Amino acid sequence: MRERIDRRKNHAQQRAQWHVMRLYSGDMTAADESELRRWLAEDPAHRQAYEHLLDLWDLSGDLVNDEDIAALTRDALRAETRTRLDRRWIALAAAVLLAVATGVLTKTFLVTTDEAQILETALGDQRTFALRDGSSVTLNSGSRILVDFDSLGRRILLDFGEIFLEVAKDPERTLTIRAGDHVVTALGTKFSVHLSGHRLEIAVAEGRVAVNDDNIRFPRQTEFLARFEAGSLILDAGSVARFEQDRQTVTEDSIGEVERLQSWRSGRVRFEDQTLMEVMSEVNRYSRVKVLIEDSTIADLRISAVLNLDQVEMTGQVELLLSSLEDIHPIKVVRHPDRFVLIANRSAGPNRS
Amino acid sequence: MATNTSKVVHLRRKDGVSDALRRIALEHEPALRRFVGARLSAHPDHEDVVQETFLRVARQEDVENKLSRSLDSVRSYLFSIATNVMRDGYRKAGTRQKYDDLTRHGARALGVESSAEEIVSAQEQLGNVKAAIMKLSPECRDAFVLNRFEGLSYREVADTMSVSVSMVEKHIMRALAELRRHVDRG
């Protein structure tokens, strides 16, 4: 029993160390923050451990003028001159590592030429590209972008599909993404942009982006600031904006929704209480073998499900999802070599499970 | 079309705030707010701290030069200013409650009751913290002092030491653990 309490205390200490470390990393995400709050509320001992560490951290700052500490700092800096490497390559390498660490399926490619180039993915494929400025862009299944970076600005044209961006900061050049009728300007962020026909969806995981609906061309920071103040749509972390024809909706403080929308990056797509029609049109984005709904009575069924992304056996994954739906919804799946057809299962009750 | 502009810190050119600082404010303000929020989770005065941080930065000498450093080191600079703003706030506020809540929670965690002896205990704690730092393994110590006293971001520390950022994060966590162990043992 005693040992168990010690172990729990030890675990709380480790979590506290982790949270304080993240806090001072400078890139704490909305998800980190909500996790911290949840953890603090869980047990008064957590708050105690956390605040104790913060106290020590603050206190250590008083040593900045201490002679011994100053000597240690000088020694540590001296090591710098021995081993300094080209920062740009390090940024590139870091972007690659990050991409490898975050994407299960994702292959990473380096974009090393200065010329504008087209990057694209086939159905069921996902790829991460490390860009020269240290940014990285991940293309979801069936997407195409044009990357055009030069000394004036960093421009990406989203032709179709969905991308997730981690934007390296650059005080001189904004990064703009043109998608349909909109221009998204990043201020050093992580976010995704999804263009499907006339429907545009932007989800911000970290930082802040600005959205304009005119044709601003490659603004420098100063021009952008003026526009920012003139009233762009500003999206903070946790926001999702959707544009369709003349309709525009913005949902704020919905970290969960942002994470769900970007879940494809970790190798699975989650659906929560969406219509069968919505879910299947999403499934068809990843699969060569399409799903068709041939009965309008089932199109609006509310579905929650998970689709695992598997480049090699995507059809099998779709089949798995469909058969799980068949178990709990009044749906029947008719399998053809080139398509799945969904019809109503008249013999099943709506809540058979 | 603007929805969120009320959240933006008000730093205007006519108040003598440079473009550089306004850009910095735009870029870092969400992260700074999150940082302050995570430190002051139980307290309502986040906005004051964020505002005061930027104003204090604006009053710094050589501000342009400081803000032209790499952007993650600017962020770590902002965080250290914000930490000072928070600490000063509690000292100045002087009310027992705030002081207790915000600077002495460490003592409470140790089971030390608030008393006059605390002043001495704070000196002792500082001595313990220093001793703990001196005893860290060389890599761990380099990472900690470069971040804490030289103001380098984790990324910059990683570059300096030719290790990965996640290794730097491990060093920082290790250093925190050692600091706590030393102080708790007293």
What characteristics describe this protein?
heterodimer; A: 353 residues; alpha+beta; Jelly Rolls; Phage tail protein beta-alpha-beta fold; 3 domains; 14-stranded mixed beta sheet; 9 helices; B: 186 residues; mainly alpha; Rna Polymerase Sigma Factor, Chain: A; Arc Repressor Mutant, subunit A; 2 domains
What this model shows, in words?
The complex is a heterodimer of chains A (353) and B (186). By secondary structure, chain A is an alpha+beta fold. Chain A has three domains: 82 residues, no CATH class; 170 residues, Jelly Rolls (Sandwich), CATH 2.60.120; 78 residues, Phage tail protein beta-alpha-beta fold, CATH 3.55.50.30. Chain A is 36% helix and 31% strand. Chain A is built from nine helices and 19 strands. In chain A, strands 1, 2, 3, 4, 5, 6, 7, 8, 9, 10, 11, 12, 13 and 14 form a 14-stranded mixed β-sheet that branches. Chain A has a three-stranded mixed β-sheet with strand order 16-19-18. Chain A has a two-stranded antiparallel sheet with strand order 15-17. In chain A, strand 9 and strand 10 form a beta hairpin. Chain A is globular. Chain B has 186 residues and is mainly α. The longest helix of chain B is centred in the middle third of the chain and has 23 residues. The radius of gyration of chain B is 19 Å and the shape is globular. In chain B, 42% of the residues are buried. The N terminus of chain B is likely disordered. At the A-B interface, helix 1, helix 2, helix 3, helix 4 and helix 5 of A face helix 1, helix 4, helix 6, helix 7 and helix 8 of B.
